[in-house]
Design a protein that fits this description.
about 600 residues, mainly alpha, about 0% strand
């Protein structure tokens, strides 16, 4: 048994050493396998990155440029980058075999996609092509072609870029030129250099006889429906042939909005396309150099012949709205252009505005004067013109415009005062001024509830002229009574006997008033009704006159009561209540 067990022990010992050997071999083989796997994966990746499969060669050389071609281009681009950037590749033998093939493929791909893309770009030149649809549905599908050329064919990329730039510059310039020519046929001329506030309406020159009289051409001074253009800011641009077919003509600001609507939409679309397709925003500036030049040439011609201050202010407001639209779109491509338009419009507006001021300052009072107390046409023009500009300033609070309107107000004030002095009677002068001021206030109120400083000024001068007129009117009918009340009735009766008022002094006044006060009031009523063009204003003035008369007569009555022996005149005194009753009759008609 002992020898048997010793034999087992020896066998177990040899098995144990065998297991140890096997364990070591196994670990060694595991390490080798791991190393081989690592080497294989690296090699496989290297082979995959560097190898040029025959299918790829076939597609690049003979395939059509389509989506599959785009994918193959991307693979080729990766391989080209791999062989140029990886440091391990540069020392490998495989590179020598593959590099010439890859270079030939690069050249073939670059020339093929260049020809393809240039052909697509030239399609933009065909007449009646919808450029934006072609850009979005065709060109953007192949935008990788441009990226490929940018990386692997710099020279041909520059050529493709130049071809696109040249095409779009010419196409868009032609588009805008044609659109502007069509718009020019639709233009309605509103004002000439003679259409100024202070210019006489009876024909401004030898040749203007056939033209519509300036008095009726209200658009020159009045805003009217023209303000609607600011509400139509987002409407589509005018289609000239449709407008022409309906024989419609438009003030220039309507055409200005249309042209700029087209410009904003075209520029926005082009700017976004350049950024997405070429990855270059700067390309936009080069493309639009042509269209901007075409628009500038047209706009400068229009501007140098524009004498329509309201139209110019509308364009200034439109430009501001256009700047807001572009800012909301977050597209900065028209910023400098719109600033330039604004900078061109303001001096022109100021120049035309100054022409209006000078026409008032240099007006010939003798030729402008008409023997008529109704509102003068110059004042009506002024009121409409000022109301229009105040209306256009409501949401802007433009201090520069307010300052100019104040200068215009001072000029018209001077002129209307000079015109009033042409009337010989001071009462007629007041009637003329009241009619003009009243009409001006009414027009300013129409423009907006807040006529501001200008309206307040006219309300003040209207008040002072009304006071003057009331005195003139009462003096015409009751001069002795007024003179007495103003001089004698206000004296202190207790001082000396010389100044004491006697019955004989007041009796003729009391009797005269009693005999004809009703007739006199009726005459005053007729006078007021015929003098004032605004019935309500006239009745207000009549009421003020009668109230003033009542005050004068009340003072006379009080004076009579104080006079010694004055009670004898009580039977001739008209009762105050009776006069108030008579005044109320006229108040009812008011």
């Amino acid at each position: 048994m002992e020898s048997l067990l010793s034999g087992f022990q020896a066998e177990i010992g040899s098995i144990s050493s065998d297991i140890k050997v096997l364990q070591e071999k196994s670990m060694d083989m595991g390490l080798k396998l791991k190393n081989r796997k690592m080497a294989e994966s690296k090699l496989a990746k290297f082979v995959e990155d560097i190898i040029v499969p025959p299918r790829m060669v076939d597609i690049i050389v003979d395939g059509e440029v389509n989506e599959e071609y785009m994918r193959t281009l991307e693979i080729l681009s990766k391989k080209l980058k791999f062989v140029t950037t990886e440091s391990t590749v540069k020392t490998s033998m495989a590179l020598k075999d593959v590099q010439p093939e890859l270079e030939r493929l690069r050249q073939k791909a670059v020339s093929k996609v260049f020809d393809f893309i240039v052909q697509k770009l030239y399609a933009l030149r065909k007449p009646k092509t919808n450029i934006q649809i072609l850009q979005q549905s065709v060109l953007l599908k192949y935008k990788y072609v441009i990226s490929f050329l940018k990386e692997h064919g710099k020279e041909l990329y520059t050529e493709a870029r130049a071809a696109y730039l040249d095409t779009m510059n010419k196409v868009l310039s032609a588009h805008f030129r044609a659109y502007i020519q069509a718009l020019e046929k639709l233009q309605l001329d509103i004002a000439t250099s003679n259409d100024l506030i202070g210019v006489e309406a009876r024909g401004t020159s030898l040749f203007s006889t056939r033209r519509e009289p300036l008095k009726n051409r209200s658009s020159v001074f009045s805003l009217g429906d023209r303000i609607n253009i600011l509400k139509e800011i987002d409407q589509p641009a005018l289609i000239p042939h449709i407008a022409e077919a309906s024989s419609q003509k438009y003030p220039y600001e309507v055409l200005f909005r249309s042209l700029h609507k087209l410009l904003m939409d075209t520029a926005s679309s082009e700017y976004l396309f350049c950024d997405e397709f070429f990855g270059e925003e700067s390309l936009f500036t080069e493309i639009f150099a042509g269209p901007f030049a075409v628009i500038d040439e047209h706009f400068n011609t229009i501007l140098s012949n524009s004498f329509d201050a309201i139209g110019l202010m509308l364009m200034i407001r439109l430009t501001h709205q256009h700047q807001l639209i572009m800012s909301r779109r977050r597209i900065p491509c028209l910023d400098s252009y719109l600033d330039k338009v604004n900078i061109a419009l303001w001096p022109r507006f100021k120049m035309v505005f100054d022409m209006h001021i000078n026409s008032l300052r240099n007006a010939n009072v003798k030729t402008l004067w008409e023997d008529d107390v109704r509102p003068h046409y110059v004042m009506r023009r002024y009121a409409e013109f000022t109301a229009s500009l105040i209306h256009l300033n409501v949401d802007y609070g433009d201090g520069q415009l307010e300052m100019n309107l104040e200068r215009l107000r001072m000029a018209v004030d001077d002129l209307i005062m000079k015109l009033s002095t042409q009337f010989l009677k001071s009462k007629l002068q007041s009637v003329f001024l009241i009619n003009n001021y009243d009409m001006t206030i009414a027009v300013l109120k129409e423009a907006g509830p807040d006529g501001g400083k200008i309206q307040m000024h006219f309300e003040e001068v209207l008040k002072s002229q009304t006071t003057i007129y009331v005195e003139e009117l009462l003096l015409e009918h009751f001069s002795d009574l007024i003179k007495f009340v103003k001089t004698r009735a206000s004296e202190d009766q207790s001082s000396t006997s010389e100044k004491v008022i006697s019955v004989s002094e007041v009796e003729p006044l009391v009797k005269d008033f009693a005999s004809r006060w009703k007739d006199a009031i009726e005459l005053m009523h007729k006078d007021v009704i015929t003098s004032f063009s605004n019935f309500l204003c006239g009745m207000e003035i009549l009421r003020t006159s009668l109230t003033q008369l009542l005050l004068y007569y009340t003072r006379l009555s009080e004076c009579v009561k104080k006079v010694q022996g004055g009670s004898a005149l009580n039977k001739d005194l008209v009762s105050i209540q009776l006069i108030i009753h008579e005044i109320r009759k006229f108040s009812r008609t008011f």
